[in-house]
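hiii, so i know i said id send this last week but things got crazy w the move. better late than never?? heres the sequnce for the chain we talked about at the cafe, plus the structure i predicted for it. fair warning i was half asleep when i ran it
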Amino acid sequence: MPLPATALPAVPRAVAHRGDPYRHRENTLPSLRSALAAGADAVEVDVRLTRDGVPVLLHDPTLRRLWGLERPLAALTLADLRRIEGPAAPLRVPTLAEALALVAAAPPTPAGRPPLLMVDLDDAGPAAAACAEAARCGAADRVVYCGPPSAMLAVRRHAPAAEVSLTWRTPLAPPPSLLADLRPHLLNLPFGLVTPVLVDRARGAGLQVSAWTVDVRRTMARVLRTGVVSLTSNRIGVLRALIDAAAAAGPPG
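okay and structure toks below
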């Protein structure tokens, strides 16, 4: 099932990768705020579960890379995590609920739409909790999901109406049986695979294409010209300016 025509962006969706990571630590509330202030239509975040099942924003399975702690998240409760961080910690691992509240309070995007939170799931494990938290917070319509087949099939079970973007790492088309079961709205591809031919082929199958993760302005422009409806970048300000300039210039010719 393709994304409904009313939901298709008039201009490509500018997605901030883990917030605004060149300015603030990735997957933190300051990073999300910065990305929204820079004009992100959506902010992509990574979600994992604590030992007591609380969905939080963290890309890695451990706290080592970002927080300097040799502790696996899955071994810590949320209370453990808060004790480790300390009450005066200037930054911390936010909960999904905190991220949802921040996005819900943000002003409309440059396109005049409410900003979205794009929840990236590496596997099916956090899907039920993430979908339940979005529903509990009254934010199900502000959340879109991306990830591999197992994760997106789990999302489809727990949130049948959610926008789903199937992360796919090969130019070969997904099996028809997978597309029939998942009914993705978008095919989410590494930018190096995206060509006009592939985008046209996907549209012929009822799919739009999103691409990730582009940080070079010239490459952003090339990928946007292929017809993608969503592009993810660590440099959201650069991407926003490029999309706005292209929209102001109008179609070529």
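btw The chain has one domain: 16-249. thought thatd interest u
miss u guys!!
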